[in-house]
Model the fold of this input.
Amino acid sequence: MTALVIGGSGSGKSALAEQLVCRCAVFPRYYIATMKLWDEECRKRAAKHRAQRAGNGFRTLEVPDHLREAASLLPAGGCALLECIGNLTANEQFGEQTVEPVSEILCGIHMLQEKLEHLVIVTNEVFTDRKPEDASMQQYVKTSAQSTAPLPKQRRSS
Done:
């Protein structure tokens, strides 16, 4: 199963995504954290999320960029919560860009889908606000949209 949880900031999407993963009763459970901890606000948000998922058997992997590389290191089986595409997109687009962000993100998601039994992806709802005036922010919204359209999980042949 692959599930996509979309919502605005503070909407409860993280809690919902964690509940979906916990209902799967599949281990190991990975929490793929994509936020770079730039400032105190980011650190507080990360601490809140760690406390929220405490005791639910998650192994946290800090993956602010290069999802494909991280996915290649995971063993087969288990499930993961990928939080969140918005952060990953920003990190890929505005960081040390070595590859095209959409390709990098989608390749990483597809690798996770192939390796894991279940994947829950969290993303921000960025499409109800007015169109950003800044060209780089317009590209961010476009990249976010393209990065949240992964192909359905393909079944492995026996």
User: Anything to note?
Assistant: Helices lie at 13-24, 40-53, 67-73, 85-94, 101-115, 135-147. Confidence is low (pLDDT under 50) at residues 153-158. Residues 85 and 113 are 15 Å apart (CA to CA).
